[in-house]
Design goal:
The complex is a heterodimer of chains A (about 425) and B (about 850). With about 425 residues, chain A is an alpha/beta fold. Chain A has helices at about 20-25, 30-35, 40-50, 60-65, 90-95, 100-115, 125-140, 175-180, 210-220, 225, 260-265, 300-305, 325-340, 345-360, 370-380, 390-405, 405-415, and strands spanning about 75-80, 115-120, 160-165, 205-210, 235-245, 250-255, 275-280, 290, 315-320. In chain A, the strands form two sheets. Chain A has a five-stranded mixed sheet with strand order 6-5-9-7-8, sandwiched between helices. Chain B has about 850 residues and is α/β, with parallel strands linked by helices. Chain B is built from 25 helices and 37 strands. Classes of the chains: A alpha/beta (about 425), B alpha/beta (about 850). The interface of A and B includes residues 339, 350, 356 and 385 of A.
Chain lengths: ~425, ~850
């Protein structure tokens, strides 16, 4: 299965305890940063590593940090641990099994942006993650890795764990900040971007759990080590959460640039009942569907984009022949309609309308013109909603119509599915 | 001057200040970019997505409401994606909208309707069943909600958050189920709630009073000013078939401090059609008031005046006018007493305590430091509260000095709770602290009076922290734009003298109000026993000469009788004739009890009013007069702005305008000088000759309103002292106005129901000592007795009984006057009979 870096401690007994983490080399990077590096040097190292944000957008992490305006304090670092996209469960593994790696990453990033108060916004359902993080923070603090004047360096840092209340939208960074401030978690208008005006209207960097967990490794082994893996534009390693109709769903660590086929067949053991692959949702439920034609497409930001989808969070969902594509699209539309915040008109009315049309088609009352109507509503949502929710909802719907139009038409013509549902997905 | 930024919109260049939004820049060159959630007075929210436009070098469509201009920006508002987006957003909005325009109050005045006609589809592609939400939900006393019509622009919610700093509305649920509502167990009962209905771009929030009473296109709009409180907001009175349907604000779409309207102004004109409106003159025959002709009524008054003045001299006549009167009526009442009768017995009742206005509304909103002294804007001049909150949002420092806890004290950086009667002493100490910081700021005379004040000793008399006066002084001295605000609690000339001295010493501007809507204007017009029109002392040679030049007659010398001195003079028979214009002296003023007793002894009491008030019911002749909304004229706002009042509806029956009745009476008496006026404008034009500051604003007969400039007018400072106590009791009575039941007008509108029940606030310790629990009936005894319900609250300081002033047969005035002294009262639980 290859070398494990991000998952190096997963499976080790008591991996979440400070002692075990330290025995396995933990906090060495943090000590090195404190003792021998300047914030700008840390930023430079991360820039050179080419590390891209692992939350979904793939934006270069070092670049994101450098957008913080000079001379404005305080600044905040917020770790986005509100992992809520259907199919995505990679951050949870890190938080539950290796919380100190996440904390060490937060500490390094905080130091880099000169922040003294960080927050971890944990998805409400992740009770164990929050508990492990809180205990780990207490351990790290007691050991002097957090708190004031850390290891005599003069640098202070506190980390607060904040639990969400079960809203998917709070994973969107501005909604997350609003929620963290104690308000209802509604996305905000951008600009201003969080880097200039974020939490409590102060410069704020928001990084994904996995992104931060990469930092101790990059500091320890150097940016060149990191760029030696993956592709030129997508360097390094990535966690992939494989789910759907596969034999061995789970979280797998691969260098970027491996083919989809490798993940599905070599890591995941192939599809259930060895049915042919019908559709692949490669980057979380909001990414456009690919098909069996794309099995040799490589899992890196550029190749997946070129195939018409996005790598997103790296949550790969596999749909096999025998599954109704209308049903898949309907279920995902229901999810987005349910999770929409309701602030903007496209999001509020558009997603709900899409959902109801899909429900009607699935129930056998579709009309041919519904497909053009759906595509037109998708155009009305794409890039026009207040936050990226509109695009997220459109991703699976539009791609399913474009790639499986004949199946839709058959469903509409006969009033029922030509392929009875074998295994439901995405509950 | 700021450098302008030039951008190109649809091929047209426009130069605008930096920070302007693309939407506003487009509007300047007549390009409409539709939007539902954008509002000039609220922060951009970017919710409706209707305003998306294409901007070159930017990916996708951008919200014009939230995108600020950058030099060289090229914007397109008419490309296919922009038009597609508009069509789509409007289609989406209509999917679940009830499309009930035929029965919607907003039809004809609805953004959604207009936009769908202009940019929307003509067909519908939506075949799913419509989603249903709540309809006809009373959000509060003034506003009704239809959740199905709501476009969720959140203007109403944002208004609460951004302007009121008081969240009563919110969005509940999420996604397609989202809906506006009041918090569970709460109501949208802010005194500014009506603004939300006006902000609503569709028919979701409607005015409960106007609901279903007219279609938008049937309404005739009359621009006027609201004369129900001293702020004098610009309003549009909308009528249908000669009846007032609703009142709307003017200038709501203009950025800046103005434009909001309180619910008193918006929904308080119900008195226009009140049952007690007078429709014809009444005269007392055989002890009963009976209808009469104008000829008979005026004849009887003229005959009595003629006889009494001949027998006892001009000073046997006295006139009292309400501070609600227009400038024109006040001017003619003053002239009537002085020219037609020959007496200075003409006074304003209740007495108004005002110093010249030195600040505009924008000065308050832009102040960096505010001292609020003995005023509670929300009850007395509501919109001032919003000016203060705007200043607070911008980081101003607020200091409150009062004798009970007002709402704004909770938002103040420093709140001084002074013992009743010691408030002026606190100002004196602040002034002395200013002098101690910088002796050059305080006059020698002032220093002579205050120099030996010991702050610590004074603080113990006041009951405040010893450092408070120093902190207030420092804050005022450090501020660049400080404003001193004072309100209805100001009790006399020394308060004003101190405020003026403090303003002068610290460079702060002074702005305040008293109880009457036009207190400032009526005083300027000379409705004072010791001052001629133009705020000049009756014996000032220059003013006398100016009056004589216009009137052709010399004004009488020596101050006349004010309200306090008047009633003893009536009782003693020295004053035999009373002419009471627009004020219910038996109910509305603190000498109410004395007035009721004395009036019985007067030979003839003439009441000229819009209602059969308690005073009118006891009068010998009652002259029916117009009410606000029915009269043309002017008022002078608390900030010294002359506002024009227009008649939106006609007075009922035979009722006439106040100024016209006074002029007619003068003609009957064959008075000297000019008494023929064709219009209120003509009266004001003459007043402008006597009061040059008004002449400067409207001396040319054109009638546009404007700022009245005040000459400095410093009152003489007295030695600092604590007010003496009067009465047998152990609690100090403090009273203050109530917004929705403040006077004869508000008390006769349906909104009086929004005032809390007559009550008295008492501190928990005082309540416990007397065995009084919250909500229990109590008896308060002063000169008279009053039954109220107790409100046990820490907002009332220990040792104080705070009674909100409410109109009604038994109101707080029966306890006795508080002029010049603090009134001590006794409180006990009402006995269970």
């Amino acid at each position: 299965m290859g070398d494990k870096y991000l998952l190096r401690n997963v499976g080790v007994p008591d991996s979440f305890r400070l002692g075990v983490y330290r025995e396995r080399g933990g906090y060495q990077s943090w000590i090195r940063v404190l003792q021998s590096m300047q914030p700008t040097e840390v930023i430079e190292v991360v820039k050179r590593s080419g590390l891209r944000g692992r939350g979904g957008a793939g934006f270069p992490a070092g670049m994101k940090w450098s957008f913080v305006p000079k001379g404005v304090y305080p600044r905040y670092l917020v770790c986005n641990a509100d992992e809520g996209e259907p199919g995505t469960c990679k951050d949870r593994v890190l938080m539950e099994e290796d919380p100190h790696a996440v904390i060490e990453g937060i500490a390094i990033a905080s130091f880099a942006i000169e922040c003294h108060q960080s927050f971890v916004y944990v998805r409400g359902e992740f009770a164990l993650s929050a508990e492990r993080l809180e205990k780990a923070i207490a351990e790290a603090r007691a050991a002097g890795f957090l708190g004031s004047n850390i290891l005599g360096s003069g640098y202070d840092l506190e980390i607060v764990v904040h639990r969400g209340s079960g809203a998917y939208i709070c994973g969107e960074e501005t909604a997350l900040l609003t929620s963290l401030e104690g308000e209802r978690g509604n996305p905000r208008l951008k600009p201003p971007f969080p880097a200039t005006e974020g939490l409590y209207r102060k410069p704020t960097v928001i990084n994904n759990v996995e992104t931060l967990a990469n930092l101790p490794l990059i500091i320890e082994r150097g940016p060149e080590w990191y760029t030696s893996m993956g592709t030129e534009k997508s360097p390094g390693v990535k966690l992939f959460a494989l789910s759907g109709q596969v034999k061995q769903p789970g979280v797998y660590e691969l260098p970027l640039g491996m083919p989809l086929r490798h993940l599905i067949y070599d890591c995941g053991g192939g599809t259930l009942a060895d049915r042919p692959v019908k559709a692949i949702i490669p980057g979380g439920s909001s990414s456009p569907m690919l098909t069996a034609e794309h099995l040799d497409t490589t899992l890196d930001y550029e190749a997946i984009a070129a195939a018409g989808s996005m790598l997103g969070s790296g949550a790969v969902m596999v749909v096999t022949e025998g599954t109704c594509i209308v049903s898949v699209a309907r279920r995902l539309a229901q999810f987005y309609a349910h999770e929409d915040c309701g602030q903007c008109i496209p999001g509020r009315e558009g997603i709900a309308w899409v959902m109801r049309i899909l429900e009607r088609i699935e129930a056998g009352h579709g009309r041919e013109e519904d497909l053009e109507l759906l595509l037109d509503i998708c155009d009305g949502l794409s890039g026009r909603s207040l936050c990226p929710m509109g695009d997220a909802a459109v991703g699976p719907v539009r791609s399913s119509i474009l790639r499986f139009r004949d199946e839709y038409l058959a469903h509409i013509a006969t009033g029922q599915c030509s392929e009875p549902v074998v295994v439901p997905i995405a509950h | 001057m700021e450098q302008l930024v030039t951008i190109r919109i649809d091929g047209q260049d426009v130069a605008v200040p930096p920070g302007t939004t693309v939407l506003d820049a487009a509007r300047r060159i007549g390009i409409e970019i539709p939007s539902l959630c954008y509002h000039e007075k609220l922060l951009p929210a970017g919710l409706c997505r209707l305003c998306l436009v294409e901007i070159e070098k930017m990916r996708g469509l951008q919200p014009a409401c939230a995108t600020t201009v950058r030099d060289g920006m090229v914007v397109h508002t008419d490309t296919a994606p922009v038009l597609h987006n508009r069509r789509m957003v409007l289609e989406l909005l209509c999917t679940n909208h009830p499309l009930d325009c035929p029965v919607c109050d907003a039809a004809g005045d609805c953004r959604l309707q207009d936009y769908v006609f202009r940019y929307g589809r003509t067909d519908s592609r939506f075949i799913e069943p419509k989603r249903h939400k709540g309809k006809a939900i009373p959000l509060g006393p003034a506003v009704m909600l239809d959740q199905e019509r709501c476009v969720l622009c959140q203007r109403c919610v944002r208004f609460g958050e951004e302007v009121l700093d008081d969240r009563q509305l919110a969005v509940f649920q999420r996604g397609a189920a989202s809906r506006i509502g009041a918090f569970p167990g709460g109501a949208f009962d802010s005194p500014f709630s009506g603004n939300a209905a006006e902000l609503c771009p569709v028919g979701a929030l409607t005015d409960r009073i106007a609901r279903f009473r007219a279609r938008a296109w049937e309404l005739k709009s009359t621009q006027s000013a609201c004369s129900l409180c001293p702020v004098g907001c610009k309003i549009a009175m909308e009528t249908r078939g000669g009846r007032l349907v609703r009142v709307r604000s003017v200038g709501l779409d203009v950025p800046g401090v103005g434009g909001w309207l309180c619910d008193l102004g918006r929904t308080g004109y119900g008195f226009l059609e009140h049952d007690e409106r007078l429709r014809q003159p009444l005269v007392r025959r055989d002890g009963r008031l009976e209808p009469a002709t104008w000829d008979e009524a005026l004849g009887r008054v003229a005959e009595a005046i003629d006889r009494v003045v001949r027998e006892s001299g001009a000073d046997a006549f006295a006139a009292l006018g309400s501070p609600r009167l227009t400038n024109e009526a006040a001017y003619l009442l003053s002239k009537f007493a002085r020219v037609a009768i020959g007496t200075n017995n003409v006074a304003c009742s209740p007495v108004q305590h005002l110093a010249p206005a030195q600040a505009r509304p924008s000065d308050v909103a832009n102040a960096d430091c505010l001292l609020l002294y003995l005023g509670d804007p929300i009850e007395e001049a509501p919109i001032v509260e919003l000016w203060i909150k705007q200043a607070l949002r911008m980081g101003a420092r607020l200091m409150v000095v009062h004798n009970h806890t007002i709402g704004l004290a909770r938002r103040a950086h420093l709140s001084v709770l002074a013992r009743p009667g010691s408030e002026a002493l606190f100002l004196s100490v602040v002034l002395s602290e200013v002098g101690r910081s910088d002796a050059s700021r305080v006059s020698e005379e002032c220093w002579g009076l205050l120099g030996n004040l010991a702050p610590a000793q004074a603080a113990s008399l006041i009951g405040c922290a010893p450092a408070a006066s120093r902190q207030v002084a420092d804050a005022l001295l450090q501020a660049e734009h400080a404003v001193l605000l004072y309100g209805c609690g100001v009790g006399g000339p020394n308060d004003l003298a101190l405020l003026q001295a403090l303003a002068t010493a610290t460079g702060a501007r002074l702005l305040g109000w008293s109880s009457g809507a036009n207190g400032r204007g009526t005083a300027d017009m000379g409705m004072c026993p010791d001052r001629l029109p133009g705020q000049g002392e009756v014996d000032s040679a220059a003013i006398r000469a100016r009056c004589k030049g216009v009137w052709g007659v010399s004004a009488p010398r020596g101050a006349g009788l004010g309200p306090a001195a008047l009633w003893p003079a009536v009782s003693a028979g020295r004053v035999r004739l009373l002419y009471i214009v627009g004020v219910d002296v038996f109910r509305e003023v603190s000498e109410a009890s004395a007035a009721a007793d004395a009036a019985e002894k007067a030979e003839l009491v003439v009441v000229q009013d819009a209602f059969l008030s308690a005073t009118a019911a006891a009068a010998d002749v009652v002259l029916p007069a117009a009410a606000p909304g029915e009269e043309e004229g002017t008022m002078t706002t608390l900030a010294g702005q002359l506002e024009c009042l227009q008649a939106a509806v006609a007075p009922p029956g035979e009722a006439r305008l106040h100024w016209a009745i006074i002029a007619e009476l003068a003609r009957r008496l064959g008075a000297q000088g000019q008494w023929d006026y064709a219009s209120a404008q003509e009266v004001l034009a003459e007043a402008g000759l006597v009061v040059p500051t008004y002449g400067a604003v409207c001396g040319d007969g054109r009638w546009q309103g404007g700022d009245v400039r005040y000459d400095s007018d410093t009152r003489r400072l007295e030695a600092p002292a604590v007010k003496p106590r009067r009465g047998q009791g152990d609690l100090t009575l403090v009273t203050g106005p109530v917004l929705f039941d403040r006077d004869a007008l508000a008390g006769r509108s349906a909104i009086a129901g929004r005032a809390s029940d007559p009550c008295a606030w008492i501190h928990p310790s005082d309540a416990a000592a007397r065995g009084i629990s919250d909500g229990e009936a109590i008896i308060v005894s002063g000169d008279g007795e009053l039954r109220l319900s107790a409100r046990v609250t820490e907002d009332c300081p220990a040792g104080v009984l705070y009674v909100p002033e409410q109109l009604g047969p038994d109101n707080v005035h029966v306890l006795g006057t508080q002029d010049g002294a603090v009134l001590m009262v006794r409180v006990k639980p009402a006995m269970v009979e």
